[in-house]
Design goal:
243 residues
Length: 243
């Protein structure tokens, strides 16, 4: 009888974990479909990224040597701002139509569902930014051997920006001027990612080994991926309780 009970408990845990995984994947698919329907929200960060990088040589200096040296920083700052601009809508629509409240009532862990939303948001916002980067790198006269490094730093860095920014988006949910407060909360936390992202390319340009830079970015990503979903969940519960 005890063996049968242990078997039943094991089967129940397996069914619950498979149900949570199905809910996680289903949420990502749903978010991708919603993003495809709302093409304007999908294109706004990309257009901002493109316009910012394109106007920078006109507003500062068209000198080739200057753009070659500052190009990685320009691209990283533009990508950071484009990511920040997209975060305000991460939870807002679900908050306004009641979907977020339904998510909180689900039997599945909320941090898993939140992680699914952030991953879907990164797929439709972060990956297009990375794919657009090689084209913009040519505009800034970046050396061919640094373009791949730059794209890889953005591939590691943009998920960190999304996960950390989602905490601020959850905290400012429901506020009238939430976008301004979100920027004030999140931008200081973005500085380490920006420093190591641009520092990787700068180190490659002067011939310094860059493995340590990638290791630090990878550690930041692992830390954000592990801890941020729980912080986002707590922030959402606080915002929902105060709304």
């Amino acid at each position: 009888m005890k063996a049968q009970n242990r078997h039943s408990v094991g089967m129940g845990a397996t069914d619950q974990s498979s149900g949570t995984w199905a809910a996680f994947v289903g949420l990502i698919v749903r978010e991708l479909r919603v993003s495809v329907r709302n093409r304007q929200d999908l294109l706004n960060p990309l257009l901002f990224y493109l316009i910012t990088v394109s106007l920078f040589p006109l507003g500062v200096s068209p000198d080739i040597d200057f753009l070659r040296d500052a190009g990685a920083g320009i691209l990283w700052v533009a990508a950071l701002l484009a990511t920040l601009m997209s975060l305000d809508r991460l939870f807002r629509q679900d908050f306004e139509d009641g979907t977020l409240e339904q998510m909180m009532l689900q039997p599945h862990p909320l941090f898993v569902l939140v992680l699914g939303k952030v991953i879907a948001h990164w797929i439709v916002t972060g990956i297009p930014l990375v794919l657009l980067t090689p084209v913009l790198s040519l505009m800034l006269f970046q050396p061919a051997d640094t373009v791949a490094t730059l794209c890889l730093t953005l591939l590691l860095g943009t998920p960190i920006l999304m996960l950390v920014g989602a905490i601020g988006a959850a905290l400012t949910l429901g506020l009238k001027n939430g976008g301004i407060l979100l920027s004030l909360l999140v931008v200081p936390l973005y500085i380490p990612v920006l420093v190591f992202g641009t520092g990787t390319v700068a180190a490659q340009l002067i011939g310094t080994p860059i493995a340590s830079y990638f290791a630090i970015l990878g550690a930041m990503l692992a830390l954000a991926f592990t801890l941020a979903p729980f912080a986002i969940t707590a922030a959402l519960r606080i915002s929902m309780a105060n709304s």
